[in-house]
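Folds vary. Our protein:
___
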Amino acid sequence: MRLIIEEDAAVGAYVYKTVDRHTGEVISQIPREEVLKMRDRPEYEVGDVVSTEI
């Protein structure tokens, strides 16, 4: 396995990926692709991912 760290200059954040060295397949990614797509939506606000209500 291999760790790749990419800077997302658009939002000033980093994306961490664990990649299979032989196949190039992304095994895991933080933040997940769904979260990255959510941040691109105009109605997104910080904290939308976590619900703090009981």
Remarks:
- Helices lie at 33-39.
